[in-house]
Amino acid sequence: MDSLKVSGKNNKHKVFLYTLSTCAWCKMTKQFLKANEIEYEYVDVDLCSEEDRQEARKEILKMGGELSYPAIFVDDKFLTNGFVKEKVRKALEI
């Protein structure tokens, strides 16, 4: 499964998102990260092949998340489902 990388000045933490291309919360999360110059990678699960979708779902569940989007991971650990701004801020130290 190929992820897309968004470069940013702040790459102190590894940030990875599983998102949906049509999800408003996913778009807000990406905008928040971009506005704060956070480097991150993401996969729009709905645009993947069925095989990659299944792989993404398994990974989210294995890491302790639920099947709702965005699924946010920081430093290879599950952080939260949904855009919880303060939780993201705290994890990224911004």
Q: Quick gist of this model?
A:
The chain is α+β, with helices and mostly antiparallel strands and 94 residues long. Helix content is 35%, strand content 23%. It has a domain at 13-77: 3-Layer(aba) Sandwich (Glutaredoxin), CATH 3.40.30.
Structure overview:
- The chain has 94 residues and is α+β, with helices and mostly antiparallel strands.
- It has a domain at 13-77: 3-Layer(aba) Sandwich (Glutaredoxin).
- Helices cover 35% and strands 23% of the residues.
- The chain contains three helices and five strands.
- α1 (24-35) links the parallel β2 (15-19) and β3 (40-44).
- The N and C termini lie far apart (30 Å).
SSE diagram, text form:
Layout: E1 4-6, E2 15-19, H1 24-35, E3 40-44, H2 50-62, E4 71-74, E5 77-81, H3 85-92
Parallel strand pairs: 2-3
Antiparallel strand pairs: 1-3, 2-4, 4-5
Q: Which descriptors apply to this entry?
A:
94 residues, alpha+beta, Glutaredoxin, five-stranded mixed beta sheet, 23% strand
CATH architecture of the domain at 13-77: 3-Layer(aba) Sandwich
Question: Topology as H/E string?
Answer: EEHEHEEH
What Rg do the Cα atoms give?
Answer: 12 Å
CATH C-level name of the domain at 13-77: Alpha Beta
In DSSP terms, counting alpha (H) and pi (I) runs of 4 or more, how many helices? 3
**What name goes with the CATH superfamily of the domain at 13-77?**
Glutaredoxin
Write down the oligomeric state.
Answer: single chain
Annotation, overall tally of beta strands: 5
Q: Helix- and strand-based class?
A: alpha+beta
The biggest beta sheet is recorded as: 5 strands, mixed
- Spatial sequence of strands, sheet with the most strands: 1-3-2-4-5
